[in-house]
Amino acid sequence: MTQQPPPRPPRPRRRLRRTLVASALALVLALGGGTAWALDRFVVDHVEIADVQAYEAEQQGTTTGASDDGASDEDATVTDTTYASDDAAVSISTVVTGSGDDQVTAYVADVTLSDATVLRSAFANNQFGTNITQTTSEMAEANDAVFAVNGDYYGFRDTGIVIRNGVVYRDEGAREGLAFYADGTVEVHDETTTTADELVAAGVWNTLSFGPAIVEDGEVVDGIEDVEVDTNVGNHSIQGDQPRTAVGVIDDNHLVFVVVDGRSPGYSAGVDMTELAEIMQSLGATTAYNLDGGGSSTMYFDGELVNDPLGTGTERGTSDILYIEG
Q1: Which segments within 114-243 are labelled E, that is strand?
Q2: Fewer C-beta neighbours within 10 Å, C or N terminus of the chain?
Q3: CB-count exposure of residue 307 (10 Å: 0-12, 13-18, 19+)
Q4: Which residues contact residue 177 at a Cβ distance below 8 angstroms, ignoring those fewer than 6 apart?
C-alpha cells in the first residue's frame, strides 16, 4: 500500500442536525399500504431506556466512566493526528491506493489501551431503543470523546446480543458477533450458542452485532462476499464497493479502526468485503470485524470529523458509537 495525501474533505460544522435515514424513507414509500407499519418499524423512535448513563450506574452499582477522575484530561497530549494519556494512545493516519475513479481513501486509527474498559460505547441521545439516531460527532461531543467511530447500528434491528460498558441491553442472539473482554482479549462468537448473561459472567465488556468477521487467525475469511447480516426487509446485502468501518485486533488492548470512504469517484470508490479484509490484514490485524457502513461510516478525532462521508461532509444519523474519553 502506498501513502499519499488525499484531497482534504471539507470540515463540517461540529453540530449537525439529525437527518432521517434515507433507506427507511425509501422503504416506506415502496411499501404503500404498509406505510403505517413501516413507519413504526423503521422510523418512529421506540425508547426502552430513557437515561442510559443512570441505568448503567444503577446496574454497575458505581459511577460510570473509565476515567471520571479526570486524570487523563490533565495528563493528555494531543496533536492533529495523535492523542496520548495514561489511559490510551491514538494515532490517526491516511492511506490512499489506486487512482482516478478507482482511488480508495482509508482512515486508520491505531489504538492502544491501558485497560480494555477505556474503550466505551454510547447510544444516541443517551437512550436505548430502536430508530433513535444522532451523528457520530454529536454522540462523541456529548460524551467528551477524543476519538470515536460509528458502531453496529443496533437500533435498526431488534435482534442481536447488546452488551455495552459491561451492562446487558438486549439478549436476542441472531448472528456472528464480536465480544470485547475486560482482560483485553477480543473474540468472534456465534450469538445463537450463548446468552448475554453468560458473556458478562465470562468477563465481556462490549459486544457488537453486525459483521461478518473478515479476518480470523490472520487470514482473510472465505465466503465473506456472500454474507447477509440480516434477513429482514431493508437490510439484506452488504456486498459491493461501499464505504466501510471495521475494527481489528493486533494484540491484547491493541486495536486498529479503519473507515473507508466510498461512493465518491476520484476521491474514494469504496471497497468490497475482501478488500476491507486485506486492508485489515496489512495493518497486522489477526482478527477483524465489519461494522455498519455506507453513510454511517464515520471517524471522529479531537473535535473534528476525520473522513468525508459519501463525499458530502455530512454525517448520517446512527444509533451508537465506540469511543475513548478525552
Answers
A1: 119-123, 128-130, 145-150, 160-164, 167-172, 176-181, 186-190, 204-208, 213-216, 219-220
A2: N
A3: buried
A4: 160, 161, 188, 189, 190, 191, 207, 208, 209, 211
Three cell numbers, residue 233: 426487509
- Helix ranges restricted to H, the chain: 22-31, 35-38, 52-60, 71-75, 136-142, 196-201, 273-282
pLDDT tens, position by position, 37-93: 566 666 788 999 999 999 999 998 854 444 444 444 678 999 999 999 999 999 999
Contact 249, 288 (CB under 8 A): yes
Residues in the chain: 326
CA–CA separation, 317 and 143 (whole Å)? 16
The pTM of this model reads: 0.86
Burial 31-58 (b: 16+ CB within 10 A, else e): beeeeeebbebbeeeeeeeeebeebbee
Using the structure block, give the residue that is written with the C-alpha cell 451523528: 135
Q: What is the DSSP letter of 185?
A: -
For residues 37 and 41, give the distance between their C-alpha atoms in angstroms, rounded to a whole number.
6
Convert the pLDDT of each residue in 123-161 to its tens digit: 999 999 999 999 999 999 999 999 999 999 999 999 999
Q: List residues bridging with 105 in a β-sheet.
A: 96
What residues have CB less than 8 Å from 235, skipping those under 6 apart?
A: 23, 156, 157, 229
What span, in angstroms and rounded, lies between the C-alpha atoms of 148 and 241? 23
Looking up cell 406505510, which residue turns up? Answer: 35
- What are the grid coordinates assigned to 204, written together? 465481556
